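User: Study the chain.
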Amino acid sequence: MQLPFIRSVRDVDLRKQRVLIRADLNVPIKEGVVVSDARITASLATIKAAVDAGASVVVMSHLGRPSEGVYAEEFSLAPVAHRLGQLLSRNVPLLAQPEDCAGIGFGEVGLLENVRFLAGEKANSAELSRRLADQCDVFVMDAFGTAHRAHASTHGVAELARDACAGLLLDAELKAFQQTLRAPKKPMVAIIGGAKVSTKLEVLGSLADIADRIIVGGGIANTFIAAAGYAIGKSLYEPELLEVAKTIASRVEIPIPVDVMVGKVFDEATPAIVKAIGDVAADEMIMDIGPVTARAWADSLLDAQTIMWNGPLGVFEFDQFGEGTRILAQAIADSSAYSIAGGGDTLAAVDKYSVTNGISYISTGGGAFLELVEGKVLPAVEVLGRRSA
């Protein structure tokens, strides 16, 4: 994977400039309070760099999925503005419209209300893109999690702003992927979980050309297990993709578990039963890898030099089916390999098993993470590359 040269905010003089930063502040909110501020804290470095340079700084982001062009209090960024202000130790006013950015002085920070309240955001309308571009001297794209979307706040404004560059977070994300995918140190092991092969078919196909081994989990694993000729009871799988699974398995090593954890009902109270891979009954569902497999696969990471992790090994939300994910997560954290982890469920597992400090790089992207692995061009990255050239 060869990404274009993209100027970083480090390369731009922000003194006395009006700076508009597209961040990813799509955080969980409950009863008007931010539940997890991880994405906010990940954006602080770029915001602080602009403030320290004496710029007039306005941050913008989406939150949730409101009806576009319609204000809805439940999707307001007001709680985010409050939390951002706490983290920056300053007042961060919430701005209702792009034109309100003019009220933010040099050395001050404002937060534009949810960009999805603005008509034309998802359609990347020229009118909204121009309205946003007119509010700044420098547009800074720092929302890797939305870089795969050609929206007005991620793409159109980058086309029209006087100057455009990548923020520190986006720059770090792209460098981490370059290191992982362009010329990874070998052996490289990819750990890919999820419900369906179909949702990660292109990811698996791309990784088959890069990785030395792919460990699959969840419903994806069930399809590969069935393709290897084993009965999987009433487990979730995709029978129409059995031949595809066989083809991928012929191109790269994909180990099949020797034991699994099964349950009869998809419920947090259902008992977990250890079964040999050949003994799964017709009324059972595979919910996790078994203890022998978990230890063997953890040991197989000892010689890895590069590890990519996207997706849990089992139904880790239920503790009795989370041991496979926990053991592999700890093995990744203990490994000396360069490791990158991304995706919502993956980050939830990283938090649950307290392995954050052991992962070399934790990506903030979900869909963008997968599309980069697939080899796709991210619209926001492409336009920044053209502007940088």
About this structure: The mean pLDDT is 95.
